[in-house]
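Reviewers of the previous submission asked for a worked example of the structure-prediction workflow described in the proposal, so we include one complete record here. The input consisted solely of the amino acid sequence. No template or homolog information was supplied to the procedure at any stage.
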Amino acid sequence: MTQKKYLAPAWVFASLNILFGTWAIYIPDIKSKLQITEGQLGIALFFFALGTLLFIPVAPIIIKKFGLGKATISAISLHAFSFILPFIAPSYFLLAGALFIVGVTSGLTDIVMNTLVSEVEKENKVNIMSASHGFFSLGGVIGAGIGSFLKLYFEIPALHMLFIIGVIFFTNIWLYKWYRNVEGTPSSTGGLDLKYL
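From that input alone, the workflow returned the following structure tokens.
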């Protein structure tokens, strides 16, 4: 994973979980700020899952229209910026709506990043999917572990999240050139070959 053309898509995996891990350490704070119950929080989190599931069928259409490289950088960028929404939601209902949007961008990112790695594997005749999933796990450690340490230095949760969003956005923009020309492979059904998902 030392070559940037392999690191670039793997970093998208890490980015996804860094964002989620950072959000996760602030769930109790957001719950307390909005004064919601565990049951209400569970329903709000359901909207995250709903957004993810509803958008999965749309992802291949976006990949086919814009190309896999452009779809990937757009997805992880939108996902990163969407994570500020739960932090600034002033009410329970807007929190649910914010988590739905985060879920939508999460579903798109999940599809495109897996498809991107499968295409890079085919183009370069390498096997990096397992290593990419390792980066996903690493992202969780960074988000929750290092995030808990950084939490001590950010009095306002939204500022911590904005800092992480900035790091994720600019690092992915920097690495984007290594996969921007990856287009994706049409399958015999007219969609994309998503067999690695």
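The chain has one domain: 4-178. We consider this example representative of the routine output the project will generate in years two and three.
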